Amino acid sequence: xxxxxxxxxxxxxxxxxxxxxxxxxxxxxxxxxxxxxxxxxxxxxxxxxxxxxxxxxxxxxxxxxxxxxxxxxxxxxxxxxxxxxxxxxxxxxxxxxxxxxxxxxxxxxxxxxxxxxxxxxxxxxxxxxxxxxxxxxxxxxxxxxxxxxxxxxxxxxxxxxxxxxxxxxxxxxxxxxxxxxxxxxxxxxxxxxxxxxxxxxxxxxxx
Length: 207
What we know:
Blueprint (H helix, E strand, L loop, with lengths): L4 E7 L3 H11 L3 E4 L6 E6 H6 L2 H15 L2 E8 L3 E8 L2 E7 L14 H6 L4 H5 L8 H12 L8 H11 L11 H4 L18 E4 L5
Antiparallel strand pairs: 1-3, 1-4, 2-3, 2-7, 4-5, 5-6
Helix pairs in contact: 1-3, 6-7
């Protein structure tokens, strides 16, 4: 089956602000990370479990609009496919999907409009990346992922793009199930730095 996960990356230094918004957005519960390099990670349970593109998009948009900042969603499935969405203050900036015909979120009919929608735009991403980032480095990731270069499949594409954005790369290649799988997470030797400092947040209406 390969890797399958969803995560959200929010440009913010206030864990408290993000937690307050996530309490209202999550339908069940979610993990929220402490800030690192100006980014906070959210792993939402239902995003991972239901894996519905519309719901993931709405969650990203609401995070971005509520916090008046940038929010990325990283999606990987089947160990091969990579998707990202970018919202800035609630407005969709860019979408990338390596294969809109893939079974998980695929379209029955892929026309020029669908291809254009999901092609990804390095120019739009560049403003969110580290100062040393070039358009060529972003394009290389997207093109290599679409071309099925083994070094840029699935989570490897998420990993490489996270590096350009200044996002912790290990936070970017995991989702909610990371904390539920004891083969992945243990407090003695976690794959994610400071994983023990992530806070489990429950829906405010279900407490």
